[in-house]
Input
Amino acid sequence: MNEFPARSHTLRNLRILALLLVLLAVSLTTWVTAYESTRWVDPLFVAIYPIAADESPVTARYVASLDQERFKPIDRFFAREAHRYGIKESTPVKTRLRPALRELPPAPPAGRGMLAAVVWSLRLRFWAWRIGGHAGEPADIRMFVLYRDPALTPTVPHSLGLQKGLIGVVYAFATATMDGANDVVIAHEMMHTLGATDKYDPANDEPRFPDGYGDPKQVPLYPQRKAELMAGRRMLSADRWVEPGSLGEVVIGPASALEIRWIR
Output
């Protein structure tokens, strides 16, 4: 009697079972990480890794000049907004500047295919673990900020934040005049790592009403005095908007607060 077909069938079932167990473990780990990162009982430590993303001496000087105080507006913004929602932790977010990196993260895929995006996400997570996974200080979220000389690169790619792995990749400008706007982008992508979703129409970048407005009950409605962080734009009229220049012009709206469990 030939036992090879039966044995092959058993091995295939074992491989499938092993794969399912791995997927279950990954899913469980992702859920636990997401839950722990939005408990808001202890501060979230956010490691910021600056990277000079071009060969410009302007960028090199800017990155070399960065210090811990540079990112304090982000800490103060999250403290201010968290307190509006009754979060008791006095410093819900604590940024920590890490040494500048010389290596760039894997570039996002040119296409929009699901498989390419999954492969790139895995590559990015492995890269982030290899680059920053062994630091002495704890880090709940890792933000890799790629600075470029605005004289050479007047526009930068879209930044991104991954909830799986709690990783952000931010494209920023290497000039002090853009520090406030850079902070808005960093905070926006940090919110993505915590589960917050965009509040604008991807077709034209227009903030969605009401969730994308700083104050949808404001009278008169325009111009909006504040921008909602996950919309990233402040409405001036029904068809005009402007990007905020600093976190002082931004709030976290109720829909975003619900997504990161500031509202239970």
Observations:
- Helices lie at 4-37, 57-65, 72-84, 114-132, 179-193, 254-259.
